[in-house]
Design brief:
Blueprint lengths: L21 H9 L11 H5 L1 H5 L4 H9 L18 H5 L6 H15 L1
The structure holds iron/sulfur cluster (2 copies).
The site of one iron/sulfur cluster (SF4) has 13 residues, from helix 3, helix 5 and helix 6.
Amino acid sequence: MIDFGYTLTKDRQLDYDHGDFRYFRFVKALEPSIDLCIGCGSCSATCSAAQFTDFNIRKLHTVIRRGDIESIKAELRKCMFCGKCQLICPRGVNLRNLILAMNRAIEQLG
Ligand code: SF4
Ligand code: SF4
């Protein structure tokens, strides 16, 4: 095969019939404000951890909503709980509690 110097992006389609939505239900029960998110990205833009790592808080709460739990397990440890994301959120999402709830979901559901 000819090497053109680039590759195809990995497929990111999500199968909603087979996603693991137990985590989302668990997190939403602990922090219902997850439903207020409009995906603006302000939380990621202001995140302290994102200044030093590839941590992306918006991506985390988006993928848990989509049932794609495996990709977030290692990421959650990067949060420093500084609360800047919560201060900037235009929708009042309680992001620190959301991160705690995601951690608890992983502890309890595996
Ligand atoms: S700042 Fe708030 S509304 Fe915007 S993506 Fe983050 S959680 Fe969602
Ligand atoms: S609490 Fe965590 S996710 Fe929010 S700004 Fe601080 S390091 Fe980032």
